């Protein structure tokens, strides 16, 4: 049995709090709907917002701990030098995708702020929802870089246990 260090990182806390918020909002909405035949207006808007935060924060945690989706079969059957090349190629592909996401997410958030766009459900400023896209994309890029550094130095943590 492998022992992994606890994942007390800001994005892990953010993902956990987002999941708790989704559960509480959904549970509250179900209870109110059954009790009064009405529902809260904000639940869908906030649930989608928290789901996006949960997804990106969880991806940052997974990126740091080498638990992202990839083809491990190729990695395990390559010599060390070729394996390091694959690590760099994986990092480069991820950085391109997250860099584009960060760039266009930042432009989108700035436009939403400048245009003073409001959300359709609650009328809150849209930039409050959108600003998390470039911020968490940047966090994913930082965590991917930390993971690459550790992998190139041979500091791979305990392998993820795949159950089938």
UniProtKB/TrEMBL annotation:
This is TRAP transporter small permease protein. InterPro entries: DctQ, TRAP_DctQ. The complex comprises the extracytoplasmic solute receptor protein and the two transmembrane proteins. Residues 22-153 form the Tripartite ATP-independent periplasmic transporters DctQ component domain. It is a multi-pass membrane protein. It is found in: Cell inner membrane. Keywords: Cell inner membrane, Cell membrane, Membrane, Transmembrane, Transmembrane helix, Transport. GO terms for molecular function: transmembrane transporter activity. One of its GO terms (cellular component) is plasma membrane. Part of the tripartite ATP-independent periplasmic (TRAP) transport system. Belongs to the TRAP transporter small permease family. The keyword Membrane applies. It comes from Sedimenticola thiotaurini. It comes from the Bacteria. One of its GO terms (biological process) is C4-dicarboxylate transport. The chain crosses the membrane at residues 12-34, 46-65, 86-106, 126-145.
């Amino acid at each position: 049995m492998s022992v992994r260090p606890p994942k007390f990182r800001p994005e892990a806390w953010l993902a956990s709090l987002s999941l708790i918020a989704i559960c509480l909002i959904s549970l509250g909405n179900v209870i109110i709907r059954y009790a009064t035949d009405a529902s809260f207006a904000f639940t869908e808007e906030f649930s989608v917002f928290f789901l996006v935060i949960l997804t990106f924060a969880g991806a940052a945690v997974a990126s740091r701990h080498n638990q992202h989706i990839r083809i491990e079969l190729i990695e395990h059957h390559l010599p060390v030098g070729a394996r390091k090349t694959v690590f760099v190629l994986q990092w480069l592909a991820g950085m391109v995708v997250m860099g584009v996401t960060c760039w266009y997410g930042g432009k989108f958030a700035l436009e939403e702020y400048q245009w003073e766009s409001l959300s359709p459900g609650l009328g809150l400023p849209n930039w409050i929802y959108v600003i998390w896209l470039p911020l968490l994309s940047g966090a994913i890029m930082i965590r991917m870089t930390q993971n690459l550094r550790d992998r190139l130095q041979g500091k791979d943590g305990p392998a993820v246990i795949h159950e089938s």
